[in-house]
Design goal:
six-stranded mixed sheet, alpha/beta, about 20% strand
Length: about 525
């Protein structure tokens, strides 16, 4: 289906790939992993023929239809969500126009014509609307959303609609760049199950290790300008990579010992007449050796000691008889909730159930119509929202922001923490005013970690983080002694942190006094909710 041979590609003065080879066969489930900037998205651009390699070849089966989901959504006009998912307004007319152009040019036997025709047929199918609705429901849309204008929705929702379109088209090779970024937990579980049974091949980039464990059967790592193949899921890859490193390191050390012994003989006896010929033989033996390079150790998550927050009262925060509505949309009616000191609580439930609203009520950032919110003794709240950067001083640099949050933190440790959260080299001297939304989100996250409150409320904190940074965050929060309430779609992150689950649905909250696996055991993995999402 897809073969990359002896690939070389450079960006500026930097070589991303050198003699790299890679293959994807029909039905494969492959994860592409590597540090930020290693070249994962660049490899996608080569497969999509958006750029050419400096050397090597990218060969695709001429019958292969390729579908691609980028990380960010493109702008949209007046089409509805359903029209985005069916492609009837933008993609279908474009495909029809391109087919006419290729027919006029006499290129009806070209791979481009065949691929465009396959996509056109998929979107022109009489059942396309029924298929699109099923995919949209699975990805968290309500039937009432189908006729909403896409441009009135967030970029994350538009990405879901575009993903629905891809799944409707069912390409032979599905390229997914961070597909879980914009999904809630229920939609992620639906997509996970869908991809397990997907008829085509899947090549994905993801920071969600549990998602990769469930979906993929191969991992290709970009390391030392090559692509290294491993069989199994992400956990298998970690084990095999460590074994491979130990074997390479042992081989390197053994060769170095052999070279040192030979070199010592040469140094001792090259001037001794009776041993000179032997010494020269040993020297030639060294020269003939195929030298083994010292392997680079696999990257490890950054570990740092999170400062412990001031101790609060036994009751961190409580809500009594809360009534909360957005206009005519009643989210909560008579809600009662108490969060105890030291709990690590994850909020789960379908999209639109009120999880983020509950966090905002706990944080005191939205008004409610009735009820009481009562903070515990000595409570210090930190609310982390993906869409909030007003705590950043636009005139400060990234490094200055961290130092200002924790004046006693040594600068070298601040730099280390910033590096683990993808702020490297000159990035730390950028003014916060020029940071992207993702960079601002990460910087706010760091500020919470270096000066933590005793009640930490976090809405999707792993978004915009790579897999190693998620692990660093997980390790830091495992040592956090305050109270944590969070929303996440990263199952690995949830499993390591949550000691309590609150299931939020239709304005009702059901507590489960155990971790995520206990919750799944008691609820059957929310089978009814997931089935309802995919009902026709």
């Amino acid at each position: 289906m897809l073969i990359i041979r002896d690939l070389k590609i450079t960006l500026g003065a930097r070589t991303l790939f050198e003699n790299a080879s890679f293959q994807v066969n029909y039905g494969d489930r492959v994860a592409l992993v590597g540090p930020n900037g290693a070249g994962k998205s660049t490899l996608f651009s080569l497969i999509l023929k958006q750029r050419e390699p400096d050397a090597g070849t990218v060969e695709r089966d001429e019958w292969t239809m390729v579908g691609y989901l980028p990380q960010e959504a493109e702008g949209h006009g007046d089409e509805t969500v359903l029209e985005v998912a069916t492609g009837r307004v933008d993609e279908l007319p474009q495909l029809e126009s391109r087919l006419h152009e290729l027919e006029k040019a006499g290129a009806v036997s070209s791979p481009e014509y065949m691929e465009a025709h396959a996509k056109y047929d998929a979107l022109n199918d009489a059942e396309v609307e029924t298929k699109a609705k099923k995919m949209l429901r699975g990805l968290g849309f309500r039937d009432a959303d189908f006729e909403r204008k896409a441009k009135a929705m967030s970029g994350g929702w538009i990405m879901r609609a575009r993903l629905a379109r891809l799944l409707v088209m069912a390409p032979d090779l599905l390229l997914l760049d961070e597909p879980t970024n914009h999904l809630d937990l229920l939609a992620l579980l639906w997509l996970q199950d869908y991809l397990k049974n997907y008829s085509g091949a899947v090549l994905l980039i993801s920071h969600d290790r549990q998602f990769m464990d469930e979906v993929v059967s191969q991992v290709h790592e970009i390391a030392e300008k090559r692509l290294h193949a491993y069989t199994g899921n992400y956990t298998d890859f970690l084990r095999q990579r460590e074994e491979r490193y130990e074997q390479q390191l042992a081989a390197y050390k053994n060769q170095q010992k052999e070279i040192a012994a030979l070199q010592e003989f040469v140094s001792r006896f090259r001037s001794v007449t009776s041993k000179a010929s032997q010494a020269m033989s040993k020297l030639k033996q060294i020269e003939r050796m195929d030298l083994i390079e010292q392997p680079l150790a696999p990257r490890k998550p950054f570990r740092f000691q999170i400062p412990q927050p001031p101790r609060g009262g036994q009751r961190a925060v409580s809500l009594v008889d809360i009534h909360m509505a957005y206009g005519t949309n009643q989210v909560y009616r008579g809600l009662d909730l108490t969060v105890e000191r030291g709990e690590r609580t994850v909020l789960v439930g379908p999209n639109g159930a009120g999880k983020s609203t509950l966090l905002k009520i706990l944080a005191g950032v939205v008004p409610f119509q009735k009820g009481e919110r009562d903070l515990g003794h000595n409570a210090k709240i930190g609310y982390f929202s993906q869409h909030r950067a007003d705590t950043l001083d636009p005139e400060r640099t990234v490094l200055d922001e961290v130092i200002a949050s924790a004046p006693l933190l040594p600068e070298n440790e601040a730099r280390g923490i910033l590096g683990s959260f993808l702020f490297r080299k000159d990035d730390i001297f950028k003014k916060t005013a020029v940071l992207s939304g993702g960079e601002k989100s990460r910087l706010n996250l760091i500020k919470f970690l270096v000066d933590p409150p005793n009640l930490l409320l976090m809405d999707e904190p792993t978004t915009h983080l790579d897999i190693h940074t998620v692990e660093s965050l997980t390790l830091a929060l495992e040592r956090y002694e305050g109270t944590l309430v969070f929303i996440s779609h990263d199952v690995h992150f949830i499993r390591h942190l949550a000691t309590k689950v609150l299931h939020v649905n239709a304005g009702q909250i059901t507590p489960y006094a155990g971790g995520y696996d206990y919750f799944l055991e008691k609820t059957g993995g929310l089978t009814d909710e997931r089935a309802a999402l995919t009902a026709a």
